[in-house]
Design goal:
Structural class: alpha/beta
Number of helices: 10
Radius of gyration: 19 Å
Order of helices and strands: EEHEHHEHEEEHEHEEEEHHEHEEEH
CATH topology: Rossmann fold
Number of domains: 1
Largest sheet: 7 strands, parallel
Shape: globular
CATH superfamily: HUPs
Mean pLDDT: 93
Low-confidence stretches: none
Bound molecules: zinc ion
Length: 316
């Protein structure tokens, strides 16, 4: 497919209502999608958004409210979809990570990565922030706390599966340098390059034990897959990919993946490594944006300093 344009928002986490930050990203993508439809024709443009619906935070919140996780995320997925309708967003697809097709594709990918040696069993020990759902390295902490959540991470060690991260690191660096995989604005390209060139990436844990609300690993049902891997694959399953590396949809690679600066590093490392480990093309570009702040900090559902959109709509 030659003159096509495929653009994505990140998928939004369904543990609270959308705020104006979600609308900012989605409207920016909407503008680019509409402009490209004028240039290339409607059928050659695909604009994807959706919701990220698995993980420990959701399991915990649903439990607190005495609800089943699926019922809990169904409610939020509907709120997001309704909101985009109200804002006249022209998305061509809406991917939900709890959809059966997405889950089946993720399992197929996990099996492929396991079979080709990219995923192996090991263990991981570290400081785990519940808010981030991530192990935190020492240099990410401020006064021993996660700066995004103002919380002391918990010491955790567990058996897990890991994905190899540095097999294709040189390739990744070269693709970023040459703009074959373009990260813009320029300062974010520099930031990522200096990060990638200063160290060998450590392998990342891609599974959890004792977390029911996730996609089970096809080769070890005691584990479910780590929320990031599940979430990243939306960019492919959202255009109908079933996980078969020999049959990738024509819209791939994405022309633009629009992301906030807080998720640049995981995209440029974990998502990129996943694709390279699968032998698939990287997105053509990431467009990275800053955050609308509230009280001097990034708006975050976890911090509770959020400016909601329902309020904005009600007063407009
Ligand atoms: Zn955190």
């Amino acid at each position: 497919m030659k003159d096509k344009f495929y653009i994505t928002t990140p998928i939004y986490y369904t543990n609270a209502k959308p705020h104006i930050g979600h609308a900012y990203t989605t409207i920016a993508c909407d503008v680019l999608a509409r402009w490209n439809r004028e240039k290339l024709g409607k059928e050659n443009v695909f604009f994807l958004t959706g919701t990220d619906e698995h993980g420990a935070k959701i399991e915990k919140k649903a439990k607190e409210e005495g609800r089943q996780p699926q019922e809990f995320v169904d409610g939020f997925a509907e709120i997001f979809q309704d909101l985009w309708k109200q804002l006249n967003i022209s998305n061509d697809g809406f991917i939900r990570t709890t959809s059966p097709a997405h889950k089946a594709a993720v399992q197929k990918v996990l099996q492929t990565l396991y079979d080709n040696g990219s995923i192996y069993k090991g263990s991981y020990k570290g400081q785990y922030c519940m808010g981030c759902e991530q192990f935190k390295s020492e240099n990410e902490l401020v006064d021993g706390k996660c700066p995004d959540h103002n919380a002391i991470p918990e010491e955790m060690e567990e058996e897990c599966y890991l994905m190899k991260m540095n097999v294709h690191q040189e390739t990744l660096i070269n693709k970023i340098k040459s703009d074959e995989f373009k990260i813009q604005p320029e300062r974010y390209k520099k930031e990522i390059l200096s990060f990638l060139e200063s160290q060998k990436l450590e392998d990342v844990s891609i599974s959890r034990k004792n977390l029911a609300w996730g996609i089970p690993l096809p080769f070890d049902s005691e584990h479910t897959t780590y929320v990031w891997i599940d979430a990243f694959l939306n960019y492919l399953t959202g255009i109908g990919w079933d996980g078969d590396v020999k049959k990738v949809p024509e819209f791939w690679p994405a022309d633009i993946e629009m992301i906030g600066k807080d998720i640049l590093r995981v995209h440029a490392t974990i998502w990129a490594a996943t694709l390279l480990n699968l032998g698939l093309e990287l997105p053509k570009s990431f467009v990275v944006h800053g955050h609308i702040q509230s009280g001097g900090k990034k708006m975050s559902k976890t911090l509770g300093n959020v400016i909601g959109i329902d309020v904005q709509l009600a007063t407009s």
